[in-house]
Structures are given as structure tokens and as C-alpha cells.
């Protein structure tokens, strides 16, 4: 029955712990917090009931609807942030993992990728922009432990996703570029 999945709670996780070496400062502070506001708004507007923002190199004021989670080992790479976010995700059925440095990704993208994960038997989906994989990535709860085990260094969930043939790829380039901003 269409619409039944609405009760399946999704938590958004914004990975924002890095120091932004190439950018020149922590990206969580970019545009006076504007990128963070955009990421949180995209997740909430796209169907997440709450948002966790994983911090490390810098602290930042939290937008409404978001809660900070600290990754104490953030300097070891993206995987530390991903693990901290998933471990704080509580009883949610889905984790919608997003990054702070893709400021043109809005709620339409999140809604499309989350909707795909909810309708796929695998409960896995990721945004694709002009055929290139990007964020957000959605993981059903049953995958979280495997994602944590497979995540190392700066590769995040790359190995986990590469080993799966059942991840729904959702083309989103008609809404955004999905380009992560590494430089000013």
C-alpha cells in the first residue's frame, strides 16, 4: 500500500567533522554556516525526522532540527565521522548520509533518494549526478553494522557500496550538480 513507509523514521547525518585543508578552513563554518544550514534544511525538507551533524575539527551552532555529535577521532578520516553518526542514529529505520560541502543539493534530491531506498528490497540508495556517484546515500538500519565494519580511513562507505549490486542509483542532476566544494 503506497504511503505505508511514512512511519519508517529516517535520520539525516551530515558529515562535517573535517578541517577543510584544501578549502582553507572547516567547511562546517563555510559561508558563515550557510552550507550547514543548507544541508540540514535539505535533510529535514527531504523527509528526515531529525538531523545529526558530526563535528570534529570545529564546533558550529546547530540549525533548528539538528543535534551535534562529536567524532573524537575525526582526524583519522571520513569513516570516523560516518561511524559516529551511525552510532548516534538511535532507533531510526534509515540513515540518510549527506556531506556539508555539496551546497546545491536540496530537499528534492533527499526526497528522491530516500524514496528509492524505501521502495527497494535492499533498502539502499544513493544520489548520482550526471552518472557520477554522490551524496546523499541512504542505508537501511540492517546495513549499519556492515557499513561500520567496511569503513576505513577517508573512504567512508565506498568499499561497502562497491561490493553491492543492489544499491538503487537515483539520477539527480536535474536538481543539482552534487559537486563537493574543496576549494574557495
Which labels suit this protein?
184 residues; Spore Coat Polysaccharide Biosynthesis Protein SpsA, Chain A; 7-stranded mixed beta sheet
What does this protein structure show overall?
This protein is about 30% helix and about 25% strand. The chain has a single domain, classed as Spore Coat Polysaccharide Biosynthesis Protein SpsA, Chain A (Alpha-Beta Complex), CATH 3.90.550.10. A seven-stranded mixed beta sheet has the order 3-2-1-4-6-5-7. It is an alpha/beta fold.
SSE map:
Elements: E1 10-15, H1 30-45, E2 50-55, E3 66-70, H2 78-87, E4 94-99, H3 107-119, E5 124-129, E6 132-140, H4 144-150, H5 158-162, E7 168-171
Parallel strand pairs: 1-2, 1-4, 2-3, 5-7
Antiparallel strand pairs: 4-6, 5-6
Helix pairs in contact: 1-3
Briefly summarize what is shown.
The protein has helices spanning 30-45, 78-87, 107-119, 144-150, 158-162; strands at 10-15, 50-55, 66-70, 94-99, 124-129, 132-140, 168-171.
Low-confidence stretches: 1-6
Radius of gyration: 15 Å
Task: Report the major sheet.
Answer: 7 strands, mixed
Structural class: alpha/beta
Name the helix and strand elements from N-terminus to C-terminus, one letter apiece. EHEEHEHEEHHE
Total domain units: 1
Shape, principal axes of CA atoms: globular
| Discrete helix count | 5
In the sheet with the most strands, the strands line up as: 3-2-1-4-6-5-7
Strand content: 15-25%
Just name the CATH architecture.
Answer: Alpha-Beta Complex
Beta strands, count: 7
Helix content class = 25-40%
* CATH fold node name: Spore Coat Polysaccharide Biosynthesis Protein SpsA, Chain A
Amino acid at each position: 500500500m503506497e504511503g505505508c513507509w511514512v512511519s519508517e523514521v529516517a535520520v539525516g547525518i551530515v558529515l562535517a567533522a573535517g578541517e577543510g585543508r584544501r578549502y582553507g578552513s572547516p567547511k562546517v563554518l563555510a559561508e558563515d554556516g550557510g552550507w550547514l544550514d543548507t544541508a540540514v534544511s535539505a535533510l529535514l525538507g527531504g523527509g528526515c525526522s531529525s538531523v545529526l551533524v558530526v563535528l570534529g575539527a570545529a564546533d558550529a551552532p546547530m540549525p533548528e532540527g539538528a543535534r551535534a555529535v562529536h567524532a573524537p577521532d575525526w582526524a583519522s578520516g571520513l569513516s570516523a565521522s560516518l561511524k559516529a553518526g551511525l552510532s548516534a542514529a538511535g532507533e531510526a529505520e534509515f540513515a540518510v548520509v549527506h556531506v556539508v560541502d555539496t551546497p546545491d543539493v536540496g530537499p528534492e534530491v533527499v526526497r528522491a533518494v530516500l524514496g528509492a531506498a524505501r521502495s527497494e528490497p535492499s533498502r539502499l540508495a544513493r544520489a548520482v549526478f550526471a552518472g557520477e556517484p554522490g551524496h546523499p546515500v541512504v542505508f537501511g538500519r540492517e546495513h549499519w553494522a556492515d557499513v561500520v565494519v567496511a569503513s576505513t580511513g577517508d573512504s567512508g562507505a565506498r568499499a561497502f557500496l562497491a561490493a553491492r549490486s543492489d544499491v538503487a542509483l537515483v539520477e539527480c542532476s536535474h536538481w543539482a550538480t552534487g559537486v563537493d566544494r574543496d576549494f574557495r
